[in-house]
Design brief:
2 copies of one chain form a homodimer.
Chain A lengths: L16 H19 L6 H6 L5 H7 L3 H21 L8 H18 L1 H12 L3 H5 L1 H4 L4 H15 L9 H17 L1 H8 L9 H17 L6
Chain A binds a DNA duplex (30 and 30 nucleotides) through α3.
Chain lengths: 221, 221
DNA sequence: TCGCTAATGTACGAACTAGTACGTTAGCTA
DNA sequence: TAGCTAACGTACTAGTTCGTACATTAGCGA
């Protein structure tokens, strides 16, 4: 019990603005994702921190701005992941499948992010609207899709008449639903959509679906 | 302003248990869907009602049970809609497309329901678990899908190796995402997924996607 | 090393919020 | 028509929750 790990601090007080800010963000992310915006308690967030509630208001201004900051960081993470996307060397079919699988993986690995997005939608995306960063964050994935799609459509491989945004929506919806709605779906239909044993099955299914859609022979009426 | 519509009531007090209960449920549905479980205020719900807060506790017992009752009724509505599903006379391809379109329409027409499901997922589907009704509500849609799928697979028309639950998840995810995530998606990508002008486009896209997936030629490796 | 300020802690309050104690009455039934 | 009870209303409370006023200090720069 008596500390050994602790660095020699005169009073237990350490000053590290960046660390304190980051720690608040970490804890707040979990708490907001766990309980929703209104369900989250700033006292609770503060208590799970090395510091006090005062610091939340000092660094972020209030609960609302804290949530916005949480969102900004969470979106920043996917943006980074998307930027490391490297599929342009593949043929269009393989590239799209790979992109879909990366989206699938990212959703699965970041359930907190999915919950935050659900929560933000309940609140009409008002925090995104209020954020300067999030408005112009863009989407590297969208650019990648655009290029793959163009290449595939030009070569005649892709017959579907979709643009990048709609295809992105299609892929996202599948990945998002699986994580976001796993509780109600599981409770109602008795199937765990995120069971590890079914993971590969659903990952393949997504790729099959998207490729089938893009390459299907269409009636020329 | 001075009432003319009002029926002659001695004191403004009318007794109608069923009506009062139903009105509370209506208002609560809106309020919960609007603000989330924790964001909703039972005082607010009561105020939007002809009656008082006391009645909410009289009829439902508490906020938690009220939310459960709201969910039960909302799920009851889709269940009814699904029961009127009549596609068995169509060939498998047309039947699946019709089913997908009905799902699409239902999601679009009941945004409050979609929000309630999102909210319930944030809370780990604990209210569904606590409800006796919801556990065994079943899904007529699932039975329909099962039959269509069997028929299509037997005839060799459908090549995909899916079961009804997974196909239902696929269709639902598309329909759900479009409505549930329209705010963040719109804010981030500048595209309104529920714009009336794009409605037909997305409806067709869903059918194309599902049919393409089910009927695609698959590598036999 | 001295002082200044960014960073931190404590204690508190005003407003809100779920829930309840208690009282009232409409309208059915015997 | 008398009385009983389901249905309803009022007023209140205990506990919570966001936010802040005020006090303190670590540690950097002059």
């Amino acid at each position: 019990m008596t500390s050994v790990e602790e660095p020699a601090r005169p009073n237990g007080r350490i000053r590290d603005a960046a660390r304190t800010r980051a720690e608040i963000l970490d804890v707040a992310t979990h708490e907001f994702a766990r309980a929703g915006y209104d369900g989250a308690r700033v006292d609770e967030i503060a208590a799970s921190t090395r510091t006090t509630k005062r610091m939340i208001y000092y660094y972020f201004g209030g609960k609302e701005q804290l949530f916005t900051a949480v969102l900004e960081r969470a979106y920043g993470v996917i943006r980074e992941a998307e930027q490391s996307l490297d599929v342009e060397h593949l043929d269009p079919v393989a590239a799209i499948r790979r992109l879909a699988e990366l989206t699938f993986d990212h959703h699965e690995q970041h359930p907190d992010f999915i919950r935050l997005v659900s929560i933000e939608n309940i609140h009409g995306a008002e925090h995104i609207a209020a954020s300067e960063k999030l408005g112009k964050i863009g989407s590297p994935a969208l650019d990648v899709i655009r290029r793959i799609l163009e290449s595939g459509q030009k070569s005649g491989l892709f017959t579907a008449d979709v643009d990048a945004v709609d295809l992105h929506a299609m892929i996202s919806s599948y990945c998002f639903f699986r994580v976001a709605n796993r509780h109600t779906f599981g409770a109602l239909f008795g199937r765990d959509l995120v069971a590890p044993a079914r993971r590969e099955h659903y990952r393949t299914m997504l790729g099959d679906m998207v490729i089938a859609y893009l390459t299907a022979e269409r009636a020329t009426d």
